[in-house]
Specification:
- The protein is an alpha/beta fold.
- It has three domains: 152 residues, D-amino Acid Aminotransferase, Chain A, domain 1 (2-Layer Sandwich), CATH 3.30.470; 126 residues, no CATH class; 234 residues, Leucine-rich repeat, LRR (right-handed beta-alpha superhelix).
- A ten-stranded parallel beta sheet has the order 13-15-16-17-18-19-20-21-22-23, with no helix packed on it.
- It starts with 17 loop residues before the first strand and ends with a helix.
């Protein structure tokens, strides 16, 4: 077909075609005010026949063909007068070299769908809600009439035009999922607008084969699958189906023609409006693009595959990415990690991994994990948690990766043992600690440091804390084994100057000096909101020594003192001095020592009830003053 590109765009022919919208909800007046027209496969065209010539224009007004026709005014033989002309809207079928005129003529053609017109509509250019479209399968699957004649289909539509009817789209999806083989076969020509609602229904219903096929034909760049996993009862099977499909897309084979998938988002807490928009519960304006909503997370994509219509052959999937949190569990790898480990062991390329959190509960096979961590965009990692008893060798292996996480804001270490396997290897410990502290210096975004059951020696903890130059928001040293100099360094380290959360539970054993605590509390009195001193062996005299410093912590809302050997009288005195000054929303007190008998072994229930009543009366006496202070 010749295209006349040298002609200027005639404004009078542009945007003159009346286009349809998709029929989502059945109108209440369907049976009275609407008519249906069968629509053949093809492209919309505007035909102008006048002055002995027939011209064909696209909906944008471009002239694409000129030929003689038998339309009035379309040729010298059919142009009876100088002013004879014809204007019709057609569907052009290139396969049959035929123009089908809508509403006026009838030819044998392959049915493409139904056009539904409101009876009282006037012809207007543009897409309008009074002209709607349906694919034939939507009517067939939603209505399932005994006969597939047009009259039967129309009767089904009319009968659904009642008050608050179910959406035709929902009925079609429910019906189509009953036959997975037919659904999969229809994905090649399924309209893009129907992919998200059909995919949601497939995930929620646990249709693994449909999910696998739809992932392989996904017409958007990003698939936020994790946001749907919480609503699926068989999420492990759905995840495995999606990963199997992604494995095929990563293979050297050419992916399906319409597949645009580049980013598989597996995060459960993904903040996305994608599904809300496509389910009809939220406006399309809430996303960046109605055709390809994107995430706010950073990544770099290189889209190299070209459309087959340009003549270039499509290429295998490249620059693919997972958005996911990696967790190495003690019970074994999960579905995502299993997928990555199998590809690494087979020597296959891994997708780029954008992870917000890395969590190790067990010790991974280091050679395989090295390949996986090479695929992780370490600059995007925000949280690292090591909940395992790593030895010096494993910790040394991980430190180079930790150094590259310049956006890390939370570091959680549990059960790390900084003890040499043999006494002669103490120099190795010092070398490793020096590496750790030097790399912590580069973590300028670190806000939360959590150390639980990490065993230090010889001022190692103080050395670690002094390596943090930026102020922390929270610090946990729970059930660690520090020395006096380590704890005294808390009062001078730059990282503790603006603490709002401090947890020292179990870190102060018997015989340990607590003289640093008043000084530390005075340093953070303007910012501290949460303090945990549980199981710190604090006695009556030490609790009294803390009272003035705690009274200056005007923002303190949570205080935990459970597990300390304190008497009832000391607790009452503590409440009188601190309750009116602090804004406690949670105050956890230990069971007074007065309530125990038999050498502090057995708890006397009567004594406990009396002590609780005494503490309650103490609080009630200061309740008006507390209310006035707040």
């Amino acid at each position: 077909m010749d295209v006349y590109i040298d002609e200027k765009l005639p404004k009078c022919y542009a945007n003159q075609l009346m286009l349809s919208e998709w029929l989502i909800d059945v109108p209440a007046d369907m049976g009275q005010e609407w008519i249906a027209v069968l629509c053949p496969i093809g492209k919309r065209a505007l035909i102008m026949a006048f002055r002995g010539c027939t011209s064909t224009y696209t909906k944008s007004g471009y002239c694409v063909d000129r030929f003689p026709s038998l339309l009035p005014g379309g040729s010298r033989q059919s142009s009876w007068t100088a002013i004879e002309d014809t204007i019709v809207q057609c569907i052009h079928s290139e396969a049959h070299q035929t123009y089908y005129v809508l509403d006026l003529m009838c030819f044998p053609f392959e049915v493409d769908g139904l056009l539904l017109y409101h009876k009282q509509i006037h012809y207007n250019p543009g897409s309008i809600p009074l002209v709607d479209s349906l694919w034939p399968y939507m009517v067939l699957l939603a209505c399932r009439p005994p006969s597939k004649s047009l009259d039967s289909l129309w009767s089904c539509l009319v009968n659904m035009s009642s008050k608050n009817p179910p959406r035709l789209l929902d009925l079609a999806i429910q019906s189509v999922l009953q036959d997975e083989a037919s659904t999969i076969a229809a994905l090649e020509w399924l309209p893009t607008e129907l992919f998200p609602p059909l995919f949601m229904a497939a995930v929620i219903g646990g249709h693994g084969e449909t999910v696998k096929a739809m992932v392989g034909s996904w017409p958007f760049i990003r698939l936020p699958l994790g946001a749907l996993m919480k609503s699926s009862h068989s999420h492990q099977d759905i995840l495995k189906a999606a990963l199997d499909a992604f494995d095929i897309l990563l293979s050297p084979k050419v992916p399906p023609r319409r597949c645009k998938l580049r980013v598989l988002d597996l995060c459960l807490d993904t903040d996305t409006n994608f599904w809300k928009v496509w389910s009809g519960t939220e406006s399309i304006a809430s996303v960046t693009s109605s055709e390809d909503p994107v995430t706010t997370r950073p990544w770099t994509l290189t889209h190299t595959r070209k459309d087959s219509r340009t003549g270039a052959k499509p290429q295998p999937l490249a620059s693919a990415m997972f958005l996911t949190d990696l967790r190495v569990l003690e019970t074994g790898p999960d579905e995502v990690l299993t997928f990555l480990m199998e590809r690494a062991q087979q020597g296959k390329d891994l997708p780029n991994l954008c992870c917000r959190e890395l969590e190790f509960v067990g010790v991974p096979p280091l050679p395989v994990m090295e390949e996986i961590l090479k695929a992780v965009q370490l600059g995007d990692v925000q949280e690292v948690a090591l909940h395992c008893r790593w030895d010096l060798h494993t910790l040394e292996w991980f430190l180079p990766y930790l150094a590259q996480m310049d956006q890390l804001h939370t570091l959680h270490l549990t059960g790390i043992i900084l003890e040499p396997p043999v006494p002669d290897h103490m120099a190795k410990v010092e070398e490793l600690l020096e590496k750790l502290t030097s790399q912590l210096l580069g973590l300028h975004q670190l806000q939360h440091l959590i150390l639980k059951s990490v065993f230090f020696r010889d001022e190692q903890l103080g050395q670690l804390l002094r390596s943090l130059s930026a102020p922390l928001e929270s610090l946990t040293l729970s059930y660690c084994v520090p020395v006096d100099s380590d704890m005294r360094s808390l009062c001078s380290c730059p990282c503790t100057s603006l603490l709002s959360y401090l947890n020292l539970s179990g870190a102060l054993s018997a015989g340990f000096s607590r003289g640093f605590l008043p000084s530390l509390l005075g340093r953070v009195s303007a910012t501290l909101t949460h303090l945990n001193l549980a199981d710190c062996e604090i006695d009556d005299s030490q609790l009294r020594a803390l009272q003035p410093a705690l009274g200056h912590c005007s923002l303190l809302s949570t205080l935990v003192l459970g597990g300390n050997p304190v008497s009832l009288a000391a607790l009452q005195d503590f409440l009188r001095h601190t309750w009116p000054l602090c804004k406690f929303s949670l105050l956890e007190l230990p069971v007074p020592q007065d309530c125990y008998e038999d050498f502090q072994v057995s708890l006397c229930q009567d004594s406990l009830i009396e002590a609780m009543q005494a503490l309650r009366e103490t609080l009630q006496a200061y309740e008006p003053l507390y209310s006035a202070a707040n």
